[in-house]
Amino acid sequence: MRWEKAMLIYNRKAGKEKVDQLSDAVAAIASEVGELTLVQTTEPGEGEKICRERSSDYDLLLILGGDGTVHECINGAAKSSSPPEIAILPGGTCNDFARTLRLPLQVGKAAEQVLTGPVYDTDIGEVNGRVFTNFIGIGLITDTSENIDSDEKERMGKLSYFLSTLRTLRQAEPFAFRLKHDEGTVDSEAVMILIANGRSLGTAKLPFAGEGIHDGMLDVLIVRQAGLSLAWQVINGGDLTDYRESGGVIEYIQTTSLRVETDEPKGIDSDGEIYLQTPADISVLPSHLRFFYGDDAQLAESE
Q1: How far is CA 149 from CA 94, 106, 159, 161, 206, in A?
Q2: Is 273 among the catalytic positions?
Q3: DSSP string computed for 146-210
Q4: Average pLDDT in the 110-132 region?
C-alpha cells in the first residue's frame, strides 16, 4: 500500500459526468490507499479552506476539477504546514495545468498515472499574496475571460474561449504600464501582459521553450498591438519569431520577480480567476509543491 491516507476533493457542480469521473478516480486509486477521504465542496472558497486546514494530515491530495478548482485548492495546500504530494485529475474545460504536467485528460487515466507516473518538485507563482500554477494575465487575456458566455462555455467547451477572443479584440485598448523586473524597468503601453509559469493557455501550447515549471523563472510576454493575427498567434501558441523581429511589437523577458503598475487599476486574471487588481507584485516560488506528472514528463525534463 503506497499511501496511508489520501484526500480526494471535488466540486459539487456535478451531474452524471462528474459522478462517473469520481467513480473512475476512486476505482483507479483505492487499492493503494489505506484510508481514502472524499470531500465535496459546495461553495466558493471552501476547497481552499479545506486544503489549508486539512491537507497536511494526508500523504496524497487529489484534486478533481478544472483550472478554477485547482487554483482554489492549491492556494490552500501551498499555505498548509506540510503539503502532501498532489495529483491533478482534469475534470474541467481546458485543464491547462494538467496539460503542462503532461497528464492524460481523462480522469480515470490521470488517476492511474498517480500509481506509475513520476513526482517532481514544481515551481508555482505568487501574486499579491496569492499563488497560481499556470499564468497571470493583464489586459486582453483578462478581458477575454470576462467576456466568456457561461451558457456558450457549457455548450461549446474550449471553442467558447476562441469566440470570446474574437469579441474582445474588437474593443481592445492599450494601457500604460510600468514593469520592474530583475534586470531593469519597462515603461510603455500594451494591450496584454502575460506572466507564465505553465505551458498551456486555453488548451494551446504557449510559445516558450522548456518546461517552465522547473526553471525557477517566470516567462513574461508584453504585447503592444491587438491585431487579429498577432493575438491569435499569442493566445494559441503559434510561432512568434517574426513578431520578435518587428521592432518591439512583442517583448519577452525571463525573471524571478516583477512588479506591474498601471495608471488605472486593472483586473488580473490568475489561472482563469479574476479577483485581483494592479499594482501586482509577482514572484516565482521555486520547487514549492510536489506534483504527479504524466509518464513522458521525465523525458521532457531531461531534454
Answers
A1: 15, 25, 11, 9, 24
A2: yes
A3: HT--HHHHHHHTTHHHHHHHHHHHTT---EEEEEEETTEEEEEEESEEEEESSSEETTEEPS-SS
A4: 95
Question: Can you give the pLDDT at residue 103?
Answer: 95
Q: Are 94 and 203 in contact (CB under 8 A)?
A: yes
| pLDDT bracket for residue 153 (50, 70, 90) | very low
Could you say which of 152, 251, 273, 301 is catalytic?
273
**Nearest to residue 169, comparing CAs of 140, 204, 202?**
140
Query: Amino acid identity, residue 239?
Result: D
The pLDDT, as a whole number, for residue 219 is 93
- Cβ contact 97:134 at 8 Å: yes
Cβ atoms within 10 Å, residue 154: 10
Indicate the pTM of the whole model: 0.85
More confident residue, 84 or 171: 84
CA angle centred on 79, ends 296 and 179, rounded to 5° = 80
C-alpha cell at 82: 506540510
Average pLDDT over residues 202-228: 81
* pLDDT value of residue 71: 96
Contacting residues for 173 by C-beta, under 8 A, at least 6 apart: 191
Short-list 247, 42, 209, 221, CA closest to 136: 221
C-alpha span between 138 and 268 (Å, rounded):
5
185 vs 116: CA distance, rounded Å: 45
Between the CA of residue 179 and those of 5, 25, 39, 183, what are the distances in Å? Answer: 44, 43, 41, 11
Question: Alpha-carbon torsion 143, 251, 202, 292, what sign?
Answer: negative
Distance CA 168, CA 191 (A): 11
The more confident residue out of 10 and 154 is 10
With a cut of 70, say whether residue 143 has pLDDT above it. Answer: no
